[in-house]
Amino acid sequence: MRKPIIAGNWKMYKTFEEAIQFVDAVQDKLPSNDKVDAVVCAPALYLPTLVQVASESELAIGAQTMHYENEGAFTGEISPAQLASVEVDYVILGHSERREYYNETDEAINKKVAAALAHNIVPIICCGETLEEREAGTTEQKVARQITAALAGFEAQEVEHMVIAYEPIWAIGTGKTATAEDANQVCGAIRAVVQKLYNAETADAVRIQYGGSVKPENIQELLSKEHIDGALVGGASLQPESYLTLLEAA
Ligand code: PEP
Q: Which positions carry Phosphoserine (predicted)?
């Protein structure tokens, strides 16, 4: 069976002190790592410290984006080699905010996935539709296109260790959640894409999260669905209590 994975995405929130306080507050209360993978994707500035503060616990630390080159003249960027050098375990790739505000393309995301794997960083690959696309009935085509592009060129054994996050853009930070049925249907469609590109074993192994206004009140129903293996969570991951509640639900 697939182990659930709950990943907080702090975006551009929290001071340094607040970030450390959060890790201190949760790290002794985490459910066992046999049951759920607990991840926090923090602002890049705090990553080395948080990795150290959390080193004795089961909390994994992730980045929110990265470049695909290991080094070079890319002012302001952070490379996969740099993330690996401070022992970051995960990286969110292709978040809709990165796609929209920083022109992250499918092609760049594919290169970033390769770069993450080369450094043993688990990529959390985001996909999802706009409200217009949902209303036009093109959700499944959109996510199939994004996932096919992100996975181009990888072997089945590599894909098995990746995490995919289905995040309808209209549900991120809006308080609107996809119904558990709708979310499960799209996560199932993503799994079918992986099966078509690879095989049933790979499709069965890859973990697919739902993201979009996940909170303690709706996590249980979402996680009860066959194809939803966890959540990528923005707002509700900022407070230790609600983050722990999400983990306990898993
Ligand atoms: C996100 O940032 O990926 C997200 C899903 O945010 P929220 O949970 O706040 O909707």
A: 213
- Please determine, for residue 176, whether its predicted confidence score (pLDDT) is greater than 90: no
The residue ranges of DSSP E strands in the chain, in sequence order, are 5-9, 37-41, 59-63, 90-93, 122-127, 163-166, 207-211, 230-233
Which atom of ligand 1 lies nearest, measured to the CA of 11? Answer: 2
Q: Give pLDDT, residue 247.
A: 98
Ligand 1 centroid vs 150 CA: distance in angstroms?
21
Write down the ipTM of this complex.
Answer: 0.97
Predicted confidence (pLDDT) per residue in 66-92, tens digit: 999 999 999 999 999 999 999 999 999
CA distances for 223 relative to 64, 102, 111, 145, 169, angstroms: 23, 31, 30, 25, 20
Residue type at position 131:
L
Contact criterion met (CB below 8 Å) for 63 and 90: yes
Annotated active-site residue 17? The verdict is no
- Is 173 labelled a binding residue? yes
Nearest residue (CA) to ligand 1, atom 8: 234
